[in-house]
Write a structure and sequence with these properties.
The protein is an all-alpha fold and about 425 residues long. It has helices spanning about 1-5, 20-50, 55-75, 80, 90-115, 120-150, 150-175, 180-205, 215-250, 255-275, 280-290, 295-330, 340-365, 370-390, 395-425.
Length: about 425
């Protein structure tokens, strides 16, 4: 970095790290993704222990909104960028696109806080969390560049260190000050520092210099990636509707309880992602051979069976050790939520099945067909949440989440069956 400062250029420095290291890529990508995935649970535990359930609930709500803003900043571009082997769009254009979406998302986040009429304390918490999550979103384009250069392990290292730095800064400042707003700002500062001192230099040092950006390429990225962004954003919005309804109807500590109950369910989703996502290229290859279509169907059945097995195992774990462990970690008696914990684990299994089925429909190149299903499920989520949360409180939020996810899974199964029949008829009109 010092040489780059002296010479006035980051991208012209010589690369220091090797590419084509598949084993290292897998290990560090898994480490980075895993650490990133547990940041929210760890921070809620820390904030509950050091600031109380009400404050932790406020932080949880800010994190939920920040995650939606991060998805908006990502705009579904990562997979498109990584698969752009011929670099039809320059990396400079990808950067401009990402900074535009990131800045826009941050402005939208601040406007949301203003509309919600948050006080200065909650506004500061939200601002700190939003910066942290949007740095995640902006860093993603640089980590995508590293993956594009076949140095995914460097992207994993970047993601892991950024997550560790954010947790460390947040925990230390909260321990010293017992002020969640100060801790959130510290987390934001740590994430920005990691972007400037680690992620950005790695991407520019370790990849070839990009050609200049073009406005038509930037616009093209907005156009091509919109369907990917819309599907992912709408799905996460569906997941978040019960939490937004709770914010207007229940005390903030319910946000903590809901998210804490969801974390074991999220474990099912993350685990099944580790199972099938590395195999998507292989699945696409199997599907491309008409003689292997039955094998393709068997793989789908096998993964669904794994999801069912994981759900059963997690249910047994929650019944045996999970609830006491959560009570110890959070300092809250979760035995009162035992039934809700089991319902949430079931919802986690349903969500994992949805995630997998959507990926399969994407392999079949029919992802555009599911948008109407997501829109219908979003409408159902709003109605269910408004009714059940106001009637049953936290239990209503969990029930509405499980009900909406179950509806979406049924719709996706029916859609997948329709798509398979349609493809079979295209192959054999007399079938």
């Amino acid at each position: 970095m010092l040489q780059a400062v002296y010479k006035g250029s980051l991208s012209e420095q010589e690369a220091q790290y090797e590419s084509h290291s598949t084993g290292r890529d897998y290990v560090w990508n898994t480490i980075g993704t895993s650490i990133w995935g547990v940041v929210f649970p760890i921070l809620t535990v820390v904030s509950t222990q050091l600031a109380g359930t009400e404050e932790a609930g406020m932080f949880s709500m800010a994190f939920v909104t920040g995650t939606l803003l991060m998805i908006a900043a990502n705009y579904g571009v990562r997979n498109y960028q990584v698969s752009d082997i011929d670099e039809t769009h320059s990396f400079s254009s990808y950067q401009i696109n990402r900074w535009l979406t990131g800045i826009t998302a941050f402005v939208v986040g601040l406007l949301y806080c203003t509309v919600r009429d948050y006080d200065a304390h909650m506004f500061t918490i939200c601002a700190g969390v939003y910066v942290y999550k949007l740095v995640d979103g902006i860093a993603d384009v640089y980590e995508g560049r590293l993956q594009q250069a076949d140095k995914l392990y460097l992207a994993g290292i970047s993601q892991a260190l950024r997550s560790v730095a954010a947790v460390a800064a947040f925990s230390l400042l909260l321990f010293v000050t017992r002020d969640l707003a100060v801790a959130s700002v510290a987390m934001a500062v740590a994430s920005v520092a990691s972007l400037v001192l680690l992620t950005l230099p790695l991407a520019l040092f370790e990849t070839e210099k990009s050609r200049s950006w073009k406005i038509d390429e930037v616009i093209d990225l907005f156009r091509h990636c919109f369907p990917l962004f819309a599907a992912l954003f709408l799905f996460n919005l569906i997941e978040s509707v019960p939490k937004f309804v709770m914010e207007g109807a229940l005390p903030y500590d319910n946000q903590l309880y809901f998210n804490a109950l969801y974390f074991p369910a999220q474990g099912i989703l993350l685990t099944i992602g580790f199972v099938y996502k590395p195999q998507l290229l292989r699945l696409a290859s199997i599907w491309s051979n008409p003689r292997k279509r039955r094998r393709f169907d068997l793989i789908i059945v096998a993964v669904m069976a794994v999801i069912l097995g994981l759900t059963i195992v997690m249910t047994l774990f929650m019944k045996w050790l999970g609830i006491p462990l959560m009570s110890f970690m959070y300092g809250v008696d979760f035995s009162q939520f035992k039934a809700l914990a089991h319902l949430m684990v079931l919802a986690g299994g349903v969500t994992a099945a949805i995630d997998f089925l959507y990926a399969i429909i994407t392999v079949l190149r029919r992802q555009g067909a599911v948008m109407k299903l997501y829109a219908l499920s979003f409408g159902a989520s709003v109605v269910l949440s408004l009714v059940l949360v106001n009637l049953l409180g936290l239990a209503g939020a969990v029930a509405s989440y499980l009900g909406t996810m179950s509806l979406l899974l049924v719709l996706l199964v029916v859609e997948y069956a329709r798509v398979r029949r349609e493809i079979t008829r295209e192959r054999n009109p007399f079938a």
